Amino acid sequence: MRRIYLDNAATTLLLPEVREFLCKVLDVFGNPSSVHAVGEESRELLEIARENTAGLLGVDPECVFFNSCATEGNNTVIFGVAGERRKGNLIISSVEHKSVSKPAHVLARRGIELREVRVDRNGVVDLEDLERLIDGDTILVSVMYVSNEFGTVQPVEEIAKICGEKGVPFHTDAVQAIGKVELRLEGVSFATFSGHKFHGPKGVGLLYASAPLKPLIHGGGQERGMRSGTENLYGILAMSKALEIIFERFEENVSRLETLRDRFEDTLLEALPDAVIVGKNVPRSPAISTVIFPKFTGWDIVRMLSEKGLMCSSGSACSSGEVIPNPHLLAMGYSPEEALRAVRFSFGLLNTEEEVDEAVRLIRSLF
Ligand SMILES: Cc1ncc(COP(=O)(O)O)c(C=O)c1O
């Protein structure tokens, strides 16, 4: 059966050029920490990748730390800012990815007060609420750049400004932003990324840190002591290559993704006028379209579509055989019934218009 992959927010296929590059660098086996010539060659390549990445992100290479994924990056930031502290408060939005909200809850069990900023019906944080929540004991504000569930873009520049004025470090989980929206890191203290979300390899990520952090992983002192463990060099090189291609063709890519998403939404709404697109009228990633369907649970729809060859994702979890409404949609003011019926379709650079048309046809056949 033919398969159509519209779950690019979960992970993406390697771009053909990245795949080719990765195959070439698989023979680079030296340990960048070794003092001999083989190690030195690897070290040079590692530093070129760091300079390249920093240049693309417009940041100082000294602030770039390679790691394994965004989950590691998010944990590093949250635990790294808290250090040994057992007092103070941490502010996150109510729609964060679990790799931010779960470590935040661990800190809450340790005595740090967890405060959640309200979001509106589109999942956008309420800036007045944020200002109200920040006080002299706030250790960190963490708000994602782009929602992995709805594609909503957060007002990162305004949040950075508020945090700057109040002297509070600001972290943004920018996993879903790369290649989808113009990235602005001015005023951002920490940002986290993951290679496999932008057509790079899995198992490699990147942390931008412009303020001190206590490391999460201790050992050989790699990454200037911030992240011990032998670097995943070929992963890092291939991620850097993917980033380069994504930035080089940014406008073309965004317009391509927008065309796919808009074609999908327009034809879907024509076929199913009762369907609702979350965050349709606010700044949104061109790669994500979350639909609340008029019937069935999101969970059932994902399973039925998978049987037909269409891969997508549902934000509702299943616990003890019962489907639970998406908690973020509830926080955004949707009813429990609506929050059960959401399905996310996410587009990548390797999808085609023809696939989108076929996807809509398959969805239509369920209703
Ligand atoms: C917004 C966001 N943050 C963090 C992550 C975690 O990324 P990784 O699985 O690469 O650690 C994801 C992955 O879905 C994500 O979408």
Walkthrough of the structure:
The strands form 4 sheets. The protein has a 7-stranded mixed beta sheet with strand order 2-8-7-6-5-3-4, sandwiched between helices. It has helices at 16-25, 37-57, 70-82, 98-110, 127-133, 156-166, 233-248, 250-271, 298-307, 327-331, 336-340, 353-364, and strands spanning 4-5, 64-67, 89-93, 113-117, 138-142, 170-173, 190-194, 205-209, 276-277, 288-292, 310-311, 317-319, 322-324, 342-346. Helix 2 runs parallel beside helix 7. Helix content is 40%, strand content 15%. The chain has 12 helices and 14 strands. With 367 residues, it is of the alpha/beta class. It has 2 domains: 4-12 and 250-364, Aspartate Aminotransferase, domain 1, CATH 3.90.1150.10; 16-248, Type I PLP-dependent aspartate aminotransferase-like (Major domain) (Aspartate Aminotransferase, domain 2, 3-Layer(aba) Sandwich), CATH 3.40.640. The mean pLDDT is 96. Bound molecules: pyridoxal-5'-phosphate.
SSE layout and pairing:
Blueprint: E1 4-5, H1 16-25, H2 37-57, E2 64-67, H3 70-82, E3 89-93, H4 98-110, E4 113-117, H5 127-133, E5 138-142, H6 156-166, E6 170-173, E7 190-194, E8 205-209, H7 233-248, H8 250-271, E9 276-277, E10 288-292, H9 298-307, E11 310-311, E12 317-319, E13 322-324, H10 327-331, H11 336-340, E14 342-346, H12 353-364
Parallel strand pairs: 1-11, 3-4, 3-5, 5-6, 6-7
Antiparallel strand pairs: 2-8, 7-8, 9-10, 10-14, 12-13
